[in-house]
């Protein structure tokens, strides 16, 4: 019984410390899709030793009528050039999924490519491309979601607070 109490106490104390050790960022992303609330969470390091990250975005789209889109991407950091004495540059790319409503239900697969710079004091500025290849379904039937594909080729800018 004492061992179980010790193990439970160790888990209660260690799990918050482990989850707080993972860098996170929260903020916004703005591009041709509209304004999106954005959250990033670092996960396991890749083969190159750089930590990869998961990004979740929720936005209100205004092209072709008002809609809402949720996108999740898993991004692989493939370069961290040392261009400045302070702060950190990261180049990333990764796949993801998008779901939403825009004149009907829409869904698709997406790819994201971009970079961001994180200042020493936590401000993160970035730019990325995120085209979505998918389809939509409404009362008129199924259609190719072409606005998401073309709009994703326009760069979006992001501003986040990294902690």
Q: What can you see in these coordinates?
A:
By secondary structure, this protein is α+β, with helices and mostly antiparallel strands. It has a single domain (23-162), classed as Beta Barrel (Porin). It contains two helices and ten strands. The chain has an eight-stranded antiparallel barrel. It starts with a helix and ends with a strand.
- Total strand segments: 10
Structural class assignment: alpha+beta
Enter the CATH topology name.
Porin
Rough outline: elongated
Topology summary:
Elements: H1 2-20, E1 24-31, E2 34-45, E3 51-61, E4 67-79, E5 88-101, E6 105-118, E7 123-129, E8 132-138, E9 141-144, H2 146-151, E10 156-162
Antiparallel strand pairs: 1-2, 1-10, 2-3, 3-4, 4-5, 5-6, 6-7, 6-8, 7-10, 8-9
Short description:
The protein has 163 residues and is α+β, with helices and mostly antiparallel strands. The chain contains 2 helices and 10 strands, in the order H-E-E-E-E-E-E-E-E-E-H-E.
């Amino acid at each position: 019984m004492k061992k179980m109490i010790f193990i439970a106490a160790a888990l209660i104390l260690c799990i918050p410390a482990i989850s707080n050790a993972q860098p996170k960022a929260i903020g916004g992303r703005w591009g041709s899709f509209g304004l999106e609330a954005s959250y990033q969470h670092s996960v396991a390091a890749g083969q190159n030793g750089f930590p990869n990250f998961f990004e979740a975005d929720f936005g209100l789209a205004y092209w072709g009528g008002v809609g809402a889109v949720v996108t999740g991407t898993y991004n692989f950091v493939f370069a961290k050039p040392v261009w400045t004495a302070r702060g950190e540059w990261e180049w990333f790319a990764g796949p993801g999924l998008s779901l939403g409503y825009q004149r009907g239900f829409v869904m698709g697969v997406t790819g994201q490519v971009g970079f961001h710079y994180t200042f020493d004091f936590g401000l993160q500025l970035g730019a990325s491309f995120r085209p979505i290849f998918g389809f939509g379904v409404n009362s008129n039937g199924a259609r190719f979601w072409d606005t998401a594909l073309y709009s994703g080729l326009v760069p979006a800018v992001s501003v986040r607070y990294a902690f």
